[in-house]
Structure formats: C-alpha cells, structure tokens
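Final report, closing paragraph on structural work. Over the funding period we assembled a curated collection of sequence-structure pairs, and we close with a single example.
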Amino acid sequence: MSGLSVLSVRLIYLHVVKANDYQVKSAKTTEPVVLLANRGCIVDCNNQLIARNIPRARMAIDKLRLNNPAVAALSLANKELRETAEWYLWDQNKRNRKVEARAAGLKAGMKAEDMIAQHINHVVETFARPLGMTPAMLRQRMKLNKEDQKYVVIKSDLSEEDAENMKRLAHDYSISPSIVFEEWQKRWYVMPNMAAAIVGYVGEDADEQGRIVRGRSGIENKMNDELAGKNGNVITHKNKYRPLDIAKPGKVTPPRHGLNVQLTLDMGMQRVLEEELEAGLEKFSSVKGAIVLMNPKNGAIMAMASRPSYNLNTRKNITQNGFDYATQAIYEPGSTFKIISTAGAMNEGFIQPDTIFDCAPYREGSVRVRDYKTFGDLTVQQILAKSSNIGSYKVALELGPDKFFEYLSAFGFGAKTNILMAGESAGVVRNTGNPTDFSRISYGYAVSVTPLQVACAYSAIANDGVLMKPQLLKSMMADNGATTHSYDKVRVRRVIKSETAEKMRQALATVVDEKGTARRAKVEGFIVAGKTGTTVKIHPDGGYYNGENDRDKRYTTSFAGMMPADQPEFVCVVVIDDPSMPDREEGKPKVTPGGGNVAAPIFSKVATRVANLMGMKPSKQGDPTQTVAKSEL
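Its predicted structure, as stored:
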C-alpha cells in the first residue's frame, strides 16, 4: 500500500497526536498503538449496500490510574486552577507548568486516599450528566468496590461525535489518564430482515491483540479473511519523566483494509421473495418455508428467502430462528421428484413424451402404488401434468433401479451443492434394493432433499441439461471500486442431453395449463414450466401425519418452476411447510393443502414481480391456456 488512507491518518491523529490528551502512559518509552483495518462492505449485484461499518467508541475507566495519587493530584490541580481568572490568560505550556507545580504541592500536603476520593468525585461529577446517568448510576458502572476489575467499560456504544465530546471533557479537566477510549467499528446491516442466513453477522473475540471482529455466520464468516483485512500499528515514543508531553509517532505499519464483497443477490428480487414468502406463510398459517430464485445459466442465486429468520442488527431469538430452511431443512419432495425417472428414461431413449402407460391402480407382490384419483392410459406428458404416482413408477421401471439412482445422483441429490454457506444438508438418499422403497422414491417419498437441491436440479433442465454449482459471490472490490477478483460460473456436469432437456421443459409446461396440477402457477403473457409437490409430513415418532392413530393430516407443499419455458431466465422453487387452507364458506367441501393451491400461487406472484424487475417482455405468441388463473382458493 502506498501512503496512508484517510482512516489511517485519522486513527494516528486520535491515537498518537492526541494520545496525551486521553491518557498518561507507564514508564515505558515506546508503546504500540493499533491502527484498525476497516472491514469491507457487502453489496448486492447492483452495488446496493447490504452491510457496512459505523465508527463507534467505548469509554472505560482504568481503575489503576483512577486510584493513582499522581494522577489524582494532576486532576485536582487542574480543577483548582481552572477556577482562577489567570487560567484563561496562560498559554498551554504555562498551564502545564502550573498544573505540575500545584500537583506537587497537593501530593505534599494531602493524604493519598483523600486525593483519590476527591478525584473520583471529580470524575463522576464531570461525566454523569453528559453520559445521561445519575452520579449514583455512574458510580455503580465504575464498580469501585470490585478490586479485581481494573478495567471497566462504562459506555460501550458511543458515536464519533459523543466520543469526541467525552474526550474533550477528559482533556479539559485533566481526567484523561483515568479514562480510556477504544475505537471500534460497529457492523450495521442496511436491510437487517433480508437474506439473514446468507449475509450472516459478526461478533467479537478477545485475544492477545485485543478485541477482534470475526464473522460468525453466512458470508461474514465464509469471507472473513477478505472482509477483515489486517490491522496496522504505530510505535509511539514518550518522555517518561514529563507525562504531559505529546507522544511522538515513530515507525508506522499501515493497516490493510478489507475488500468489499459483491454478492449475486439482487436485493430488489430479495425483497420480492421475502414479502411473498411472508404473505404466503400468513395466508396458509405456516411458520416455515423457503423460496429459492436461481439463474440456471450460471448458477447465480438471485435471491433466497427462508423462514423462520431473524434481524441481523438485533439478533433477537437467533437460537430458535437461525436455522436456514433453504439449505438445511430436508423434506420429502413428492411429485417435484418425478423429473428424475422421466428425464432419465427419456434421455436413455426408453420413452418419449407421447409414450403411453397404463396408470390403473397398481399392486404386484409387496409393491402397491396409489394415485389421488383413478387414471387409465396416460402419456408421459399427462403423467407429469396429472401427477400420477403409478405412471411415474412405471417410467422408473423402464429406467431400472441402477440407472435411476445414477440419474438421481447426477442431478445432485444425496450430496451437498457446496454453496458458500455453513451447515448445508446433503439430504438423504438410500438405495436399499427394496422394491417398495424404489417405488416410493420414484414419486418423491423415502428420499429427503433441500429446496436448494431441487432448484439446482430444475436449473439443469432449464440450462439445456447442464448442472451448475450455485453461486453467491460475484466479485471482490477494493475501496476505490476496482474489481480485484471475479467469480466465474462453475459447470458441475452434463446430466441429460440438450434435446432431452427441451422435451422435459415442454412436458413440464403442460403441468401449468388448465388440465394440469399447477394452473395457479400461471403468469400472464409467459409460458411457465414446472411441477407441483405434496407430501404427508413425517411424524417424529415414526410414520406419517396421515390422519391415523389420532394424528392430524399435515403436509409439505412445493412448486418448482421456470420461466419462460422455452429459454428460462430463472428457476424458482417454493416450499411451504405444514400449511392450512384458509377457512371456506359454510357448506363447501374442505380443501386439502397441496402444491397446486399453496406453493403454485406464491410462485405466480413471485415470477410476475421478478419478470417485471428483469424487464422481461411477454411472449407475443404464447399458449392461450397460460394466462393468469382467476379462480380463488
């Protein structure tokens, strides 16, 4: 680094040039002063500020110096002489000489304990009101009766202006030796209720260098070294025999300030996800869920919201709400998982979109597969559109268990995506060799996934069959705005052929028409492709919340979609845990919550707003069935 930054110069001024104004050093002739490195900012893909530092200060009492007779004498001498008319006629050098002379007289004529008691009273009287405390409150904060505590913080969060005022008081009344001001940087989150799990937060650790700020979670933790930079220092030289002399700066090692981290997140889109997830959870009386918005072409996470969540500035209830549903929660995906058998069998040439299967009720040996209604012959496209479990299982049989699990793994299930976040779950995938387990996995039971894994898998279909690693980092930037490092997209593997991916998108578009299960996922002017998912929740004591054994029926609902279907600009996955349908009018049948009537309409609202933010133009010639559904729940 050539030269010193403005912050470094200011820190040298505060810590060195004005050092004597704030404290009397020990007999040492040299002492290092830390020059704090400025922690880098976190910004979104449009350089909108997400996290930054606010300069703050701590004010503390050094009780060793507070109870030092020499320090007390200087303080009392200053107080006494300031009340004389001559004080204001003297220059600073003469004031210093007069104070030192009077302090010597006080030490000769007063008992040490009396001087210390009067000095403490002087400190309390000087600072109580400016700190917004009563004298009794300040004395309590100073912990005068606890001899084991030599350094006591009396105000932990002072603004720069308030700290300067306190320093000026301490200097003017020669109380500086007893008062310590520690510069620090408070991390401030501009939008504290958005993307909390991704952004993360910082905390302080104490080590031989003092208080060190370190990232505790999210990007703050994963990119801590780059954000934190490295503190510098300056060695000060003092005349130990003249405590009122100004310290002279010596060798300076400037700090290396942290880099700014630019994320792939778009905070405008993040706001959309946060608002629509919150509204959806409220409507369906749920408290858990997630929405993932991903660019399938490069793996960039455009936005990702989870509930429950917490405020990054206050971190209230973080223990209960710090779990990230999008990357850590695992759930049985249900029918959104039917892309595995369909894409695999189609990619191997075993089936085509118009291949017909008998989807009548199925039972053979120990394997029994049910549908929510009775079907007859269905094409592969119809199997997806109507979400037939029997049809999906028969397609999986065409592929065979070995190939099925190969494709399941190729799509990324059963392994972490390695997104830059701690605690990500790999999900649960087991090839037990049991025919019943295989049948259930074919339609999304007996397997557990995360919302992010589903988003990545659907992105492979949207990206012409290529799976991309999910990305949160876009670039690293210096304070002057220069980019020091850009993060390229990472191709994981080709999962299916390009032509297979195109056929899958066309087939998934039939799910979002008037005869499909996801008609409420439609977006006016665009063709949407996607798949609904509804599963009965697992009971912690074993089995399911299936209405049997005095258990309520409880579900996990989801929708995974992409838009526009022919060349998707984004993939969006919505998962709502344990929803309840709003009250129906009297006399109307109760509706079971499902992916089509819970998650799909949330997708529609998100996709409509995101398309507007992206400036996407509606298709001039689209499927006439792909219009906004006007029917209500």
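Residues 1-28, 239-246, 627-633 have pLDDT under 50 and may be disordered. The longest strand covers residues 49-62. We thank the funder for supporting this effort.
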